[in-house]
Design a protein that fits this description.
single chain; 166 residues; Four Helix Bundle (Hemerythrin (Met), subunit A); 7 helices; globular
Length: 166
């Protein structure tokens, strides 16, 4: 699998979903439950931070594994309080503008893209590099399921919302 391409296409899907979105549309509720498009992007930004911490852990850890720790606040919160993680991270960004939230997502994605190239393909394919996710899974699996698929799902919701409401 070409993980770099998977991440690139996932990011491109997010960018395309909000391309040319009118300012008035960003904060309308209903794109995903009560969430607005801005909230979805805030949610995806928090996930990018999780992935950034996972990748940093693999890059910096000599045994090439990533586990939650004091230096991974997003990952720790994600693994310990997943049910609350989503809403609390969206709520934490309520005071930001849509463009600030999008910029945060873009910045975190840039870090992810830089980090993934520092991890050898063999390490990406190796099961057990993220033991908290499951010993039978690799980093590649985690990226495809929890990030690429996740982005596609939310971008589909944005597209549907744009078509029905805007």
């Amino acid at each position: 699998m070409n993980t770099v391409d998977v991440l690139k296409y996932g990011h491109g899907t997010v960018q395309q979903s909000v391309y040319d979105l009118p300012d008035s549309a960003w904060e309308k509720p209903g794109a995903c439950g009560i969430w607005s498009i801005k909230d979805i992007i805030a949610h995806l930004a928090s996930f990018e931070h999780v992935l950034q911490e996972v990748l940093t852990g693999i890059v910096e850890n000599e045994n090439h594994t990533s586990t939650p720790s004091a230096t991974t606040p997003y990952l720790t919160k994600f693994t310990e309080a997943n049910a609350q993680f989503n809403d609390s991270e969206v709520d934490a960004r309520k005071g930001k503008t849509a463009m600030e939230v999008l910029a945060e997502y873009d910045d975190a994605n840039s870090q992810v893209m830089s980090l993934i190239t520092q991890i050898p393909e063999e390490t990406r394919r190796h099961n057990g590099t993220i033991p908290w996710y499951g010993l039978d899974y690799s980093l590649d699996d985690f990226i495809v399921y929890a990030f690429y698929g996740h982005k596609r799902e939310h971008c589909g919701q944005i597209s549907l919302f744009r078509g029905n409401v805007l």
